[in-house]
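Entry:
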Amino acid sequence: MTDQPMRQIAAELIREKALRLLDEEIPHGIAVTIEKMTERRNGLFDIEATIVCERESHKGIIIGKGGAMLKKIGTAARVEIENMLEARVNLRLWVKVRKEWRDSDLYMKNYGYDPKDI
């Protein structure tokens, strides 16, 4: 049980998988935003999410060679989101660079963080 919206939980699951799979290759300066989350009539969920990082070099690490790392992150997150929703999920991920987003109260709020808590 939680009081968090499903979109926030999905974003945190994706972020968790990214951090676990990337281990210590990038700092914890990533955020995940859910751009779209809709349910089709057949019960399938379409989720589009963006992983936000602070540097171009981090973007390359997150995507990995030929998109391999992004695929691993997406697969691991999709499985857990499907278990949570008890439904099939079509998960699409993108990676964007927002330089020094953690220094911006506006970005922090948009990504679901309270700047006062950090």
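The chain has one domain: 6-117.
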